[in-house]
Design a protein that fits this description.
By secondary structure, the chain is mainly α. The protein has one domain. It contains 2 helices and no strands. Helix 1 crosses helix 2. The termini are far apart.
Length: 64
């Protein structure tokens, strides 16, 4: 995802004067700061609810 974010930033804003390694590191940190909490708090809860609601009952019916 960091590489994808870096490529999209380059496509939108052009090539900056900083190095690619620095740009990748900054993109990685931004991605970690924003995406990791979103995954833990929001998306993880939604997917857990969907799996418990729809997937788990169908699995218990097959084994019974």
């Amino acid at each position: 995802m960091s590489f994808y974010g870096m490529v999209t930033a380059y496509m939108n804003h052009g090539l900056p004067t900083e190095s690619l390694v620095r740009s990748y590191g900054l993109t990685f940190l931004k991605n970690f700061v924003f995406a990791f909490p979103l995954q833990l708090i929001v998306m993880g809860s939604i997917i857990r609810f969907v799996f418990v609601k729809f997937v788990k009952p169908s699995l218990s019916l097959k084994t019974a």
